[in-house]
Amino acid sequence: MSLAGRRVVLGVSGGIACYKSCILARRLTECGAAVDVILTAAATEFVRPLTFEALTRRPVHTSLWDRDRALAHIDLARTPDVIVVAPATANLLSRAAQGLADDLLTAVLLATRAPVLVAPSMNDEMYANAATQRSLAMVRERGWAVVGPAIGALAEGPSERPGRMAEPEDILAEVERLIVGADSRLSGRRVLVTAGPTREPLDAVRVLTNPSSGKMGYSLAARAFARGAEVILIAGPTTLPPPYGPEVVRITTTAELLQAVEQRLPDADVLIMAAAPADFAPRVVADGKPSRSDGGFNLDLVPTPDVLELTTARRKPGAVTVGFALETGTATERARSKRDRKGLDLIVLNRADELGSGFEVDTNRVTLIGEHGETPLELLPKPEVADRILDAVERLL
Ligand SMILES: Cc1cc2nc3c(=O)[nH]c(=O)nc-3n(C[C@H](O)[C@H](O)[C@H](O)COP(=O)(O)O)c2cc1C
Asked: pTM, whole model, 2 decimals?
């Protein structure tokens, strides 16, 4: 992810999750953003400004009354691409909702036109309290974005109710979405991505499948979310953690994949078929678990439904459709004919027989084949391949 040349104001109010804001400050800085941190007086009780100064390599702001920076609140309000408040305490939310400007952070929040993202973080009772809910409704009405809170352990012990601050990586994803989404043609578009393998049962316990990890499709879903899209990820069996943001629909067989795509396709502005469906399934699923001692096991395989072909008529007019072709050997012609046959705008050719490419690995070397020719890309990490594919999709939208 690149936030190079971007400016972020990170407001930190006085909650126990302040320690996680240090990680957020570090990650934002690593992504290339210039991060100006504002601590409330209560926040300085939890974490010293020095920590943030070292992490961001920039001066940290703690007071409206700093003689050297008389109009810091106006400068800080004017310059950022986004202001993120993490943690946002009940107290901070209440003060901001009322439009108070009684310290540097609330003054900046009142004086800014930049998008604001808050990450509430507090005891679950404090969060459920009508006063806090009212404050959140008020800031939402003002157009602020809210991330979390999550359900999970609080400083005081386990909880099954919301209150815990969203994880720094999830806050980062929302920050990126606000910044990158502002300039992206994918912002607000519905993007349907399929990922992972499918599995066809052979008997009660055995399956026919392939080694697809789902990494390419998951990267595409996460990167489309970062560009502001509403993303649905239809995922076959994988061990990957669900990406933050997209709605995840789990499927197992190719027939289930077909059904899930059919159901959601009419609303999709973009369809990206990165799943690796099992192309064959047994004609008959054997009963129980045939044993080795029963002798041999003959597989009579029939083709599974061709999801792309069977859903052509359900595509929204003008929708951009991207398919993947995993081939061995010289395969450009085969990929091009697949593109034409299946009515795709773009086909992504990747090679199963090349080191660092295709199944299971974190990198991929692909060729994008569109109406006007081929674009071979270098070997790249899958999230970067995803960005290149999405750049091409944006040009087609
Ligand atoms: C140890 C400790 C932990 C606290 N954690 C939280 C918290 O997670 N969320 C919260 O809303 N308030 C928390 N508070 C209360 C706030 O610090 C208090 O309301 C303070 O006035 C917040 O000021 P600020 O919003 O200006 O930063 C905590 C207080 C203490 C002493």
From this structure: 0.87
